[in-house]
């Protein structure tokens, strides 16, 4: 059997929780709350779309570089034997390196923004 | 968790969460701030929710309690209880045990904001005595003493009420 203090605790707890359960927000405040979540959700969708587009462009750039310089024997042979090889090679290399650097920079920047747009909460 | 599902669950809990924050913080503006921040944090962390939909109420309540405690700490000030506001809280309640709630809340009004915080965290926030002491920066003895005072005074009030009823 519960002791008297325990009964008192249970009674207070039950009464206060029952009061809290009956709570309602005004329609205006409820709408405001839901709108703020909807805005966040919209922003998230936009970020996701941007990320996909960015990944697609980056993928295309990397594929082009790969085809040109590394794994495609035909392209590499053709490129190496072509007359523009000796004249344009440094420029192409510079452009490629710049493209990779820009890609890495943008990726890092995007990840940083995505991480920092979220609140850090640890409720464990 | 999808947006629709999240908003549906939030809708079912928001009124309760607001009242819990109100009981802890003692005024509507702070309670509203706490609820808004809680909703935003919950949305951003929704993927960390374990246990799915059934776990949502307890999960978001925990976020709210922590958020309310953060507000208490950040403002680090005594929030005066506006008696009129507290009366309005009571007026909002349409509970079957309205009288019982009024008795408790009248007592909270008499005892003041420090007792209110302890009572709200203990009975609405489900925090242990040690957690309350730690969060409010007071000793365990003080927490026990405040709860004990509340119990004693409540018992007295109930006896008075029952004596009035009999006479």
Characterize the structure shown.
The complex is a heterodimer of chains A (124) and B (167). Helix content of chain A is 83%, strand content 0%. Chain A has 124 residues and is mostly helical. The longest helix of chain A has 43 residues. Chain B folds into 2 domains: 77 residues, Rna Polymerase Sigma Factor, Chain: A, CATH 1.10.1740; 87 residues, Winged helix-like DNA-binding domain superfamily/Winged helix DNA-binding domain (Arc Repressor Mutant, subunit A), CATH 1.10.10.10. Helix content of chain B is 78%, strand content 0%. In chain B, helix 2 crosses helix 3 and helix 5 packs across helix 8. Chains A and B meet through helix 1 and helix 2 of A and helix 1, helix 2, helix 3, helix 5 and helix 6 of B.
Order of helices and strands of chain B: HHHHHHHH
Distance between the termini of chain A: 34 Å
Task: Give the uncertain stretches of chain A in residue-range form.
Answer: 119-124
Provide the gyration radius of chain B in Å.
17 Å
Q: Strand percentage of chain B, roughly?
A: under 5%
Number of helix segments of chain B?
A: 8
CATH class call of the largest domain in chain B: Mainly Alpha
């Amino acid at each position: 059997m519960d002791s008297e203090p325990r009964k008192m605790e249970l009674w207070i707890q039950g009464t206060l929780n029952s009061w809290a359960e009956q709570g309602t927000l005004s329609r205006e405040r409820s709408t405001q709350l839901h709108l703020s979540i909807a805005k966040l959700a919209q922003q998230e969708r936009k970020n996701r779309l941007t990320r996909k587009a960015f990944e697609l462009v980056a993928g295309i750039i990397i594929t082009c570089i790969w085809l040109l310089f590394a794994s495609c024997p035909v392209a590499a042979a053709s490129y190496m034997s072509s007359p523009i090889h000796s004249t344009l090679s440094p420029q192409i290399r510079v452009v490629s390196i710049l493209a990779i650097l820009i890609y890495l920079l943008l990726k890092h920047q995007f990840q940083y923004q995505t991480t920092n747009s979220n609140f850090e909460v640890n409720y464990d | 968790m999808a947006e629709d599902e999240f908003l549906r669950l939030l809708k079912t809990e928001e009124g309760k969460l607001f009242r819990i924050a109100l009981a802890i913080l003692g005024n509507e503006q702070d309670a509203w701030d706490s609820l808004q921040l809680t909703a935003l944090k919950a949305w951003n962390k929704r993927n960390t929710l374990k246990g799915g939909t059934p776990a949502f109420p307890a999960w978001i309540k925990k976020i709210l309690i922590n958020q309310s405690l953060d507000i208490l700490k950040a403002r680090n000030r005594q929030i005066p209880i506006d008696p009129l506001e507290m009366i309005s809280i009571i007026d909002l309640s349409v509970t079957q045990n309205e009288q019982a709630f009024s008795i408790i809340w009248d007592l909270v009004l008499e005892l003041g904001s420090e007792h209110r915080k302890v009572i709200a965290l203990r009975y609405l926030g489900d925090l242990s005595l040690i957690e309350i002491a730690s969060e409010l920066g007071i000793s365990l003895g003080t927490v026990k003493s405040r709860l004990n005072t509340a119990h004693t005074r409540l018992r007295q009030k109930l006896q008075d009420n029952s004596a009035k009823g009999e006479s």
